[in-house]
C-alpha cells in the first residue's frame, strides 16, 4: 500500500465533510461528495480508526477539547494556577517564607545536565526503604533463603499449572530482588565516589589552610622579633630615664656602673673571681624576658604536616656531626662536628647565626635549653653560653647576600656551602667555663641550676650553675664496687656486667632531674643515682653493649645501646617494660609522648610510634633511594613535639616532621 | 521497576516510625549528609499529610537540586510533585514543563501535567463559583438596600 507519508495528505473524512458543506455551489458540492466517497472508500480498507494512531491522537485531542466547557476554557486557558494558590503565595507569610527557602534560581533551571546515574533517587529510596523497616538486609535474606528451601520440595516433583505459575511468580520476585540488589550496589559505589570527591575537596581545603597557617606563623615570627626590639628599646629608655633621675637625686660622686646595676651591693658578698664568672645580673633577665614572650606562641605548623615530611635540609658542616640539639620547633639549633666548629642555627630561616669559638677540641656533647647552651668537649672543659646575646636579626637584614633570595636559602640546596655569618656575632655569648675533668667530656645534662657531666676519666661531676663550680664528684667504678658489695647477689651481677668497651665512651649518656641521676656506661649498665647521698640506688642490667643514649620521663626510662637494642624500663620497678632491636648499633635516641626516634647506623631515622605500635623510617634515605645517591648515615637525632632534627656523617642536618 | 514515582505514590503517607527512621539517618550524617539519605528523608516528608512536613520536604528537594547538578533532571520531577501536593500549581507546572521539554515521552510527567491541569480547572471553577456567588449576594443586598433607600425617600 501507500507509504505512511501519503495518507497525511488526506484530511480527516469528517473535517473534509465540514469543509465541503461550507461551499454553496451545487456543482462543486456534488464533486466534493464524489471525492469524499472515493476517498473514504479508498481509505476504509486500511484506515481503521482503531488502528491508526494519527487518527486516534487527533480524535482524542478533539475530544478532550470538546469535553471541557467553552466558558471554562476561556477563563482558564490563560491562568497557570488556581486562585487559592495565588492568594496563598501573596498573603500568608509562612507560605512566602517556605517558598523563598525552596526557591530555585532560574540560571540553575537552565543548567540541567543530562542524567547519567544508573539509578534514580527514587529507586534508591525504594531499594533502601526495606532496610529501615525490616531488621536489615541479612535478616531479609535469611527469610528469603528459608522460604526457598521450604518451597523447593513440593514444587519440583509435580508439573501442574499451579506449580508453574508459582515458580514463575517466585522467579519474578527473585528477579525483582536481584534488580534491587543491583541498585543497592550502584548506590553504594556511587556513595563511595561521593565520599572520595569530598575527601579530595577537604584535602584541598587542608592545603589552603596549611598555607595560611604557614603565613601566619611567618608573620608571627616577624612581629615577635619586632616586639623584642621595641622592648629592648623601651628598657634602654627606662634605664636611661632612671639613670638621669638617679643622677639628679644622688650626689654626683656615684659612678654610672653602680647606678646601672640593679643589685649594687651584691659584689660585697662574693669573691671577685666568682662574681666575674656569673652572668651579669642586669642583662640576663632583660634578655630572657622577650624570649619568654616568644615561647608563648608555639609554632604548630609542623604538627599539621604529614609525618615524614622534610621541612629543611642544611649543609651544616663539612665533617661528621658529633652533637646536636635545639630548644624548640623552629627555634635555635646548635650543631657540633668533627671539624671542631660549633654553629648556631635559626631553624625558622635555616640560617647560621654564628660560630661559637672557645673549645680547643671538638665538642662531643651539648644541650640547649632556654637559650642557655652547655657544650662538653674533648678538651675536658664544659662551656656555657647565653645564646640570647647573639647579634642576629631573624629577618636577615644584616646578611646582605641572603636578602635577595630568601626562598633559595630557606629551601636551599643542601650541597650549598654554609653561609658564613658575620664574624663576632657570638662574641657576647660565652658565660663561663667549667674545668675539673681530666679527660674528654662525653655526656652532659642540665636542668635548672644543676649540671651533671660524664667524662672519660670515669667520673661524673655535679655542677652548680649559680655558683659555677663543681659540687660533687661521683666515681663510677667506686660506686659500682660499693653497689656490688652491698648487693646480696654480687656473683650474678659480676657476670652480666661486661668489661668496658675501650672504643666506646665510658659514660655514654646521662640525665638529671633534681636529685635523681641516670647514667648509662660502656659496660652496658644503667645506674640510677641519688645526688643527695652520692650513691647508686639501682642498677639496670640488660644491655650487652655500651649504652649510648638515655632519656627518662615520669614513668619510663628508655636506653639505646651499641648492642643494637632499645630498652624501655619501668622506673618504679626497675624491670624491662619493652624492648626492640634494629640491625645496627644505636648511636642516638630521643622520645616524646608519642614516639621514640633513634639513629641506628642507617641513612634513615628509625621511628617507633608508641600509640599505633608501628615502626617506620623517616629521613633522606627513603626519598633519595630512588635517585641512586645514598645519603650519609644518620649519627645524631633530636626530636621535640614531632619536630625532628637529624645530623649525618657528611655534615648535613635534616629537619623533618614525625 | 519505574525510574520515577507516579503521583499516586506521593499520596500514601509513611507511618511516623518509618519517617522517624529516615529522620534519624538524616540527622546522624549531619553536615556531610549524602544525597540519597537527604532524598530519602525529603521523600518521606513529601509523602506526609501535614503541610508543614511537605514544606520541609520540598525545601530539602530544592537543596538537592542546588547542590548536586547530576540529580537536577529527576529533581525537577520531585519538585513538581512536591509543589503539586502543596497546591502550588504554578511552581509544579513550571518544573514539570521544564522536564517535559527535556523528556517529552516521560509518562510520569505527562500524568502529572494532566493532574495539575485538572486540579487547576476544578479549583478554578470553584473559585469562579464562589466569586460569582458573592457577587450575586452582593447584588441582591445592594439591590435591597437601594430599594430601601428609594422607599425612604
UniProtKB/TrEMBL annotation, chain A:
List all Basic and acidic residues biased stretches. 253-265
Q: Which UniProt keywords apply?
A: Coiled coil, Membrane, Mitochondrion, Mitochondrion outer membrane, Repeat, WD repeat
User: How does this protein lie in the membrane?
Assistant: Peripheral membrane protein
What is this protein's function?
Involved in mitochondrial fission. Acts as an adapter protein required to form mitochondrial fission complexes. Formation of these complexes is required to promote constriction and fission of the mitochondrial compartment at a late step in mitochondrial division.
Note down the stretches annotated as region Disordered: 1-21, 136-164, 250-269, 274-296
**Residue spans of biased composition, Basic residues class:** 138-147, 286-296
Q: What is stated as this protein's family in its record?
A: Belongs to the WD repeat MDV1/CAF4 family.
PANTHER family registered for this protein in UniProt: WD REPEAT DOMAIN 5B, WD40 REPEAT PROTEIN
* Name of a matching Pfam family: WD40
* Keyword Membrane listed: yes
Please identify the protein, giving its name as recorded: Mitochondrial division protein 1
Tell me the organism.
Chaetomidium leptoderma
Automatic annotation (TrEMBL), chain B:
GO CC aspect terms: mitochondrial outer membrane; peroxisomal membrane
SUPFAM superfamilies recorded for this chain? Answer: TPR-like (SSF48452)
> What InterPro entries does the record tag this protein with?
Fis1, Fis1_cytosol, Fis1_TPR_C, Fis1_TPR_N, TPR-like_helical_dom_sf
* Keywords carried by this UniProt record: Membrane, Mitochondrion, Mitochondrion outer membrane, Repeat, TPR repeat, Transmembrane, Transmembrane helix
Task: Give the subcellular location.
Answer: Mitochondrion outer membrane
Membrane topology, as annotated: Single-pass membrane protein
The record lists the membrane-crossing segments as: 125-146
| One of the GO biological process terms | mitochondrial fission
The cross-references to CDD domains, in alphabetical order and at most eight, read: Fis1
**Domain remark text:** The C-terminus is required for mitochondrial localization, while the N-terminus is necessary for mitochondrial fission.
**Known role:** Has a role in mitochondrial fission. Has a role in outer membrane fission but not matrix separation.
Q: Which family does it belong to?
A: Belongs to the FIS1 family.
Protein name in the entry: Mitochondrial fission 1 protein
- State the organism named in the record: Chaetomidium leptoderma
Amino acid at each position: 500500500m501507500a507509504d505512511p507519508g501519503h495518507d497525511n495528505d488526506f484530511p480527516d473524512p469528517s473535517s473534509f465533510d465540514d469543509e465541503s458543506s461550507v461551499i454553496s455551489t451545487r456543482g462543486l458540492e456534488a464533486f466534493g461528495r464524489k471525492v469524499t466517497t472515493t476517498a473514504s472508500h479508498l481509505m476504509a480498507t486500511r484506515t481503521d480508526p482503531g488502528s491508526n494512531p494519527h487518527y486516534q491522537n487527533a480524535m482524542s485531542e478533539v475530544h478532550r477539547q470538546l469535553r471541557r466547557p467553552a466558558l471554562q476554557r476561556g477563563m482558564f486557558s490563560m491562568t497557570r494556577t488556581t486562585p487559592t494558590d495565588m492568594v496563598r503565595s501573596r498573603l500568608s507569610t509562612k507560605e512566602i517564607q517556605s517558598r523563598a527557602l525552596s526557591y530555585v534560581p532560574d540560571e540553575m533551571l537552565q543548567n540541567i545536565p543530562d542524567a547519567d546515574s544508573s539509578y534514580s533517587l527514587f529507586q534508591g529510596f525504594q531499594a533502601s526503604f526495606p532496610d529501615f523497616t525490616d531488621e536489615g538486609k541479612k535478616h531479609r535474606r535469611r527469610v528469603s533463603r528459608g522460604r526457598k528451601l521450604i518451597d523447593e520440595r513440593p514444587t519440583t516433583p509435580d508439573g501442574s499449572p499451579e506449580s508453574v505459575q508459582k515458580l514463575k511468580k517466585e522467579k519474578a520476585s527473585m528477579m525483582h530482588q536481584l534488580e534491587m540488589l543491583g541498585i543497592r550496589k550502584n548506590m553504594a559505589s556511587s556513595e563511595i565516589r561521593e565520599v572520595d570527591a569530598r575527601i579530595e575537596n577537604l584535602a584541598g581545603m587542608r592545603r589552603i589552610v596549611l598555607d595560611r597557617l604557614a603565613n601566619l606563623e611567618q608573620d608571627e615570627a616577624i612581629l615577635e622579633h619586632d616586639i623584642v626590639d621595641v622592648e629592648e628599646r623601651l628598657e634602654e629608655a627606662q634605664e636611661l630615664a632612671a639613670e638621669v633621675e638617679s643622677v639628679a637625686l644622688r650626689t654626683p660622686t656615684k659612678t654610672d656602673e653602680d647606678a646601672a646595676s640593679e643589685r649594687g651591693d651584691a659584689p660585697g658578698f662574693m669573691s671577685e673571681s666568682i662574681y666575674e664568672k656569673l652572668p651579669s645580673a642586669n642583662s640576663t633577665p632583660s634578655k630572657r624576658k622577650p624570649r619568654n614572650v616568644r615561647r608563648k606562641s608555639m609554632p604548630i605548623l609542623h604538627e599539621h604536616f604529614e609525618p615524614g615530611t622534610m621541612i629543611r635540609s642544611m649543609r651544616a658542616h663539612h665533617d661528621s656531626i658529633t652533637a646536636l640539639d635545639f630548644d624548640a620547633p623552629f627555634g635555635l639549633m646548635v650543631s657540633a662536628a668533627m671539624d671542631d666548629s660549633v654553629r648556631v642555627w635559626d631553624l625558622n630561616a635555616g640560617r647560621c647565626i654564628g660560630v661559637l669559638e672557645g673549645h680547643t677540641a671538638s665538642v662531643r656533647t651539648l644541650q640547649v635549653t632556654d637559650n642557655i647552651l652547655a657544650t662538653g668537649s674533648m678538651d675536658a672543659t664544659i662551656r656555657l653560653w647565653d645564646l640570647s646575646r647573639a647579634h642576629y636579626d631573624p629577618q636577615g637584614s644584616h646578611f646582605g647576600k641572603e636578602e635577595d633570595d630568601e626562598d633559595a636559602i630557606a629551601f636551599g640546596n643542601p650541597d650549598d656551602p654554609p653561609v658564613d655569618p658575620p664574624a663576632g656575632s657570638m662574641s657576647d655569648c660565652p658565660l663561663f667555663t667549667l674545668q675539673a675533668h681530666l679527660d674528654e667530656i662525653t655526656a652532659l645534662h642540665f636542668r635548672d641550676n644543676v649540671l651533671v657531666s660524664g667524662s672519660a676519666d670515669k667520673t661524673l661531676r655535679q655542677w652548680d650553675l649559680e655558683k659555677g663550680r663543681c659540687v660533687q664528684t661521683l666515681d663510677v667504678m667506686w660506686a659500682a664496687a660499693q653497689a656490688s658489695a652491698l648487693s646480696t647477689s654480687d656473683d650474678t651481677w659480676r657476670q652480666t656486667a661486661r668489661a668496658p668497651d675501650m672504643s666506646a665512651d665510658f659514660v655514654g649518656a646521662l640525665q638529671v632531674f633534681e636529685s635523681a641521676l641516670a647514667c648509662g656506661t660502656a659496660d652496658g649498665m644503667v645506674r640510677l643515682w641519688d645526688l643527695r647521698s652520692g650513691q647508686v640506688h639501682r642498677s639496670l642490667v640488660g644491655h650487652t653493649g655500651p649504652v649510648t643514649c638515655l632519656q627518662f620521663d615520669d614513668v619510663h626510662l628508655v636506653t639505646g645501646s651499641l648492642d643494637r637494642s632499645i630498652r624501655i624500663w619501668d622506673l618504679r620497678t626497675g624491670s624491662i617494660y619493652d624492648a626492640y632491636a634494629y640491625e645496627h648499633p644505636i648511636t642516638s635516641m630521643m622520645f616524646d609522648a608519642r614516639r621514640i626516634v633513634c639513629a641506628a647506623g642507617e641513612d634513615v631515622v628509625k621511628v617507633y610510634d608508641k600509640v599505633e605500635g608501628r615502626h617506620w623510617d623517616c629521613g633522606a634515605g627513603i626519598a633519595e633511594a630512588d635517585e641512586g645517591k645514598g645519603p650519609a648515615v644518620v649519627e645524631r637525632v633530636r626530636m621535640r613535639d614531632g619536630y625532628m632534627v637529624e645530623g649525618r656523617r657528611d655534615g648535613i642536618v635534616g629537619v623533618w616532621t614525625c | 521497576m519505574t525510574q520515577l514515582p507516579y503521583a499516586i505514590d506521593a499520596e500514601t503517607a509513611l507511618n511516623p516510625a518509618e519517617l522517624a527512621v529516615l529522620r534519624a539517618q538524616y540527622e546522624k550524617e549531619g553536615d556531610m549528609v549524602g544525597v540519597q539519605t537527604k532524598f530519602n528523608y525529603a521523600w518521606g516528608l513529601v509523602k506526609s499529610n501535614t503541610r508543614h512536613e511537605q514544606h520541609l520536604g520540598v525545601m530539602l528537594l530544592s537543596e538537592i537540586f542546588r547542590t548536586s547538578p547530576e540529580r537536577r533532571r529527576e529533581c525537577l520531577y520531585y519538585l513538581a510533585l512536591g509543589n503539586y501536593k502543596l497546591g502550588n500549581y504554578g511552581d509544579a507546572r513550571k518544573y514539570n514543563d521544564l522536564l517535559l521539554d527535556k523528556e517529552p515521552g516521560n509518562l510520569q510527567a505527562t500524568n502529572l501535567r494532566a493532574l495539575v491541569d485538572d486540579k487547576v480547572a476544578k479549583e478554578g471553577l470553584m473559585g469562579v463559583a464562589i466569586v460569582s456567588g458573592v457577587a450575586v449576594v452582593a447584588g441582591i443586598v445592594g439591590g435591597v438596600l437601594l430599594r430601601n433607600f428609594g422607599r425612604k425617600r
